[in-house]
# Entry
Amino acid sequence: MEFTSKSRFYIYGVSAIAALAGLLFGFDTGIISGALLFIQKDFVLTTEMKEFIVSSVLLGAMIGTLCSGNLTDKYGRRKLMVVVSVLFIIGTMIATFAMQVSAILFGRLIIGLAIGIGSYIAPLYIAEVSPFSLRGGLVTLNQLAITTGILCSYIIDYSFTSFHGTWRWMFGMGLVPALMLLVGMIFLPESPRWLVGKNRIDEATRVLRNLRNTKDVAQEMQEIKRSLNVKEATFREIFSPWVRPVLFLGAMLGFIQQATGINTVIFYAPTIFQMAGFVDVSNSILATVGIGIVNVLSTVFAILVIDRLGRRPLLLTGLVGMCLSLTALSLAFHQGVDISVMRWVAVACTFIYIICFAFSLGAILWLVVSEIFPLNVRAAAMSVAVFSCWFWNFAVSSTFLTLLNDFGPSQTFLLYAGVCIFAFVFCYYKTPETKGVTLEQIEENIRNRLPLRDIGQPLCTKDLLTESQIG
# Structure
């Protein structure tokens, strides 16, 4: 299908508004890296309490992810996105005006609920409104928004280091994108695929025509209807034998993304740079801004090439780079960062690690889990897969400082490098290439019990003729 500049502008606009949930995701996970350095000046914090302030948002994300899958299928993607924006606003206000550590924890728990729900609904919504030829780049916009949010949080952390009530200003700035998301989602259409699932065919056709800027949407509507020619799914069906393999794949990708150590850098970057020899708080936060910049630029690169090069080449290349940079980072700390050269090696390795993560696991996890699940169970199955991501995020982030204290940075980063080796082997044998294939074709392959690595293959002409004859 050829797209006019008007239709492209509209679909990118819709996707950009939905991706504000990703920006908030990035902002509220990244802002704590600088804020924590100032919260500990106002409150007496143990190592465990620091870890809990960081990871409380992840606990909320786990709860939000698990509890919202059926709600998304029942009430629709757009309405849940409105709820997400309201939760962001409430949680941000509680954390900003907190007078006790418990209030900060409660506010960040609510923010976590919003992040957990929004982290899978935003890419799900974008994937379902996108034409398949643009789906990779459009869904990856959500990851660009996440990295942009992280960069913004680092810049705000640095900008408010000399303000009275520093960490309150850092938290409070999150109200701006939360309000933008709330207003934007009020005016966006519902997912046409969800509307078809609720038998609201006329409304789905009208929405699809607006999204494609053409009246000729009969073929796409037929593909959507065809994918729904099964009984209404229950939550238990996501664990049925034919869905279980892709559920396992989604959960494993969530584990891999987090167990390779990304959020130890996102949450604790200033702490890492201080260990590397940048003792001044402002300088360590400023160095962290550089992390945010290369994160965004690498994600832009992924958006530009992911629909041309495909998912697998980027994923596997990134994992190799992550493993090598973590190994070198481990060696740098083993040699001692008091040596000037090794200090800069440690910083360079951190940057290379972020670059490789951003164009591989960072972009591809959210894209692949929005593609691989059948429509009838997509939201519920995504909620389980993304729960795995948040669970391991919580496990890694809440133990990082303890690992540093018990084993030192060299052994800690070497552990994450070892996970990268396992991740490469798993992804090589199990992760499919889904470039240029419709969601309905992927679902058909899953129903035909193709191996995981092959579910992204286009349906062959022989299969289509056989199905046509049967019909």
